[in-house]
Structure prediction request, 138 residues.
Amino acid sequence: MDADLVPRLEALYKQVAAPFVQSLGLRIVSVEKDVSVMALPVMPHLVHGGGVLCGQAMLATADIAMVLGLAAWFGGFRPMTTVQLQTTFLRPVPADTAEVTVTCRILRCGKTLAFGEIDMTLPDGKLVAQSTTTYALL
Prediction:
């Protein structure tokens, strides 16, 4: 993949993501055509009263991770919309966790639909959430 893809995806994140989604502080770690790795910092404004990372932040992360993953697949942004986002939460993310690793995989990309999966893991590698997604390509 071309060397300037990470900075272009970072710029895209700032351009297309809603302010709420930008407040997640998602950082792009590495990008290949079909696999993108990002880091979600666990910040106080993302932790709910139970002392763990809130599920809404994780869902928003999965959604934008797929948008960025598809932008990597296409080599740039393409208009799309979420058709399905299903997430299974396997364990909580404690508030004192530094960050969650977010791995987005493009499973299939057709003319009108794209399918992917997103794994979120703790620093020790334990899976905390897994999402499957379907996007309509506009």
